[in-house]
Specification:
With 375 residues, this protein is an alpha+beta fold. 33% of the residues lie in helices and 21% in strands. The chain has a domain at 224-374: Peroxisomal Thiolase, Chain A, domain 1 (3-Layer(aba) Sandwich). The structure holds coenzyme A (COA).
Amino acid sequence: MEPTYRPVISSTGLFTPEESISNEELVTSFNAYVAKFNAENAAAIEAGTVEALAPSSVEFIEKASGIKARHVMAKEPILDIETMAPRWPERSNDEVSVLAEIGVKAAQQALENAGRKAEDVDAVLCAASNMERPYPAMAIEIQQALGIDGFGFDMNVACSSATFGIQTAADYIRAGNARSVLVVSPEITSGHLNWRDRDSHFIFGDVATAVLVEDAAMAPADHWEILGTKLKTVFSNNIRNNFGYLNRAHPETSGAADKLFVQEGRKVFKEVVPMVAKMIIEHAGQIDIDPTGLRRMWLHQANTGMNRLIAHKVLGHEANDDESPTVLDTYGNTSSAGSIIAFHKHSKDLKSGDNGLICSFGAGYSAGTVFVRKA
Ligand code: COA
């Protein structure tokens, strides 16, 4: 008889950058930039040829998004109104790249939490919204740094990268092609954020997460069964970033704002909430789970309002912090890592047999659902 393999989540890991920017610090810097821009362009603004910039506000940010602060890899240049972007010295080809460095830290923690040695891991998926370079793959650099004998590759499904990575890892295990797979999501989103854009300058933060997906037969006793995974994509221009290697083909616009994160936040909110709630309820039905009985939902962390609505539709009542925890207040939106941070930080209290849901959604549009049960 063919052996059967059953993928589970053995452990998770989290790397949080030391530096953090509060809404107050962010808005002070942004408004200094606005005042300088308006002063320098006073004549043109007066003549009506340049539009004056409007200031940002701490109250708006917290009310519209639930974000109070975000961790970043380089605070000083982001708050410096002459730069307003992350900056650090370029690394040589012999040094570990920044994305791999933070990915390795999260991965080491996941390995430690599972009591797993690197040599027992078969594959590394680096699943994130932005890669530091096209090749060699970040995943292969992480694999090399950890000392893993196997294979690795990068995958980008924007905010859903981690859940797409979990399903991919689970499928390798189901098929018998790997027994232990690390899904690493280093998200240095401060690099794709336009810190001069009032509509979005408060959204993102930096972090790295790792999820160790393994065959149940080798997993530690304390693990999470994967009850089902489902992925969905529907094309939308409402979250877009035109940065890419072909920007060299039109150098005159290579520095334009569309080469950073741009979104129609209202449309995203309106279109993604019903899509994701429907997907969760349908997927639950397909695997015979009562969605109203979910013990906890670790939702994508983009906006507290979105999460409140999705959780309400799924659970059938207003969810409390225990049922749908947030990490938005301290981390901001960390793209694909958000639901994994929530899971990492808020899952230890669940009891054997408790059902939960890890769920991501974002650009593409893309969405992923991973139903889990505490072993
Ligand atoms: N400070 C103060 N006011 C601001 C502001 C800021 N930084 N940014 C926008 N505003 C103002 C707008 O000018 C607008 O004013 P008006 O009503 O006079 O025109 C008002 O606040 C509302 O702006 P709007 O953009 O409609 O805000 P919102 O309530 O939709 O919240 C988001 C904005 C981005 C927080 C919200 O739409 C969102 O989270 N959407 C989903 C995002 C998402 O999940 N994206 C996925 C990314 S991975």
